Amino acid sequence: MEGLAGKVGIVTGAASGIGRATARKLAACGVSVVVSDINLAGAEETVQLIVEAKGTAIAQQTDVGSEPALAAMVEKAVATYGALHLLHSNAANTELVEHETKVAQADADLWDLTFDVNARSALLGAKYAIGHMITAGGGSIVNTSSATGQFGEPHTRTAYAASKAAVDQLTRTIATQYGKQGIRANAVAPGAVRTPNFDDGISEEVLDLWRRNHLTPDVGKPEDVANAVAFLLSDLAGFITGQVLNVDGGLTIHSPLYSEMLLGREA
């Protein structure tokens, strides 16, 4: 990817899934990567994979729900590598989804916790990164959003979907406020991606439902999203900012009748 070699970047939520795939992709492109996650052992495993592939990375344990921890994460990157150019705010708490309800039964504390991890952390990561990026001559931020932030949730992901919609708007605002100072901000909105969290306990029946409602033959892989993130962070996307790129196999662009119509046609 053009312009990535020699840069310094942070990837949050990088102990597994999309974050790990992105950290490995960026390192393969010559980025010195701070692998950040609350799961230190998982972050260290990611670093080991990067080092084994001749890349450069360090692990940083970070609770993205803590503002001091996010500030320390950014300072660690600058202290270790001398600058900061790239930030992929990817961390999210998908486990909270299991405890969500519909609106009439919503738990306000759960709502707040979901926003703390999924949206507030993206705000605070940018807050502490932007100044260093400006000092370095410019930078690029990519936030991980979700296709769920773009349509009404039929079941229980009330707070999760709303928090991801907030990430979309935050991304546009960062791009607007700091574009003239050399900062680009974009987001990726994945559809169903086979991360460890996604695969944990999913039935073949539900997985097939996801497959039927994507326009691609199968659901996504973490590497599919990592490739998009690397592109948006790179100079190849130098004229792209304030955008939400759906990396979703067409999940969000077709009629909700698609799956049933397809089945009827096949019958």
Automatic annotation (TrEMBL):
The keyword Mitochondrion does not apply. Transmembrane segments: none annotated. Gene3D superfamilies: NAD(P)-binding Rossmann-like Domain (3.40.50.720). Keywords: Oxidoreductase. GO terms for molecular function: oxidoreductase activity. Belongs to the short-chain dehydrogenases/reductases (SDR) family. This is SDR family oxidoreductase. It comes from the Bacteria. The lineage of its organism: Bacteria, Bacillati, Actinomycetota, Actinomycetes, Glycomycetales. Pfam families: adh_short_C2.
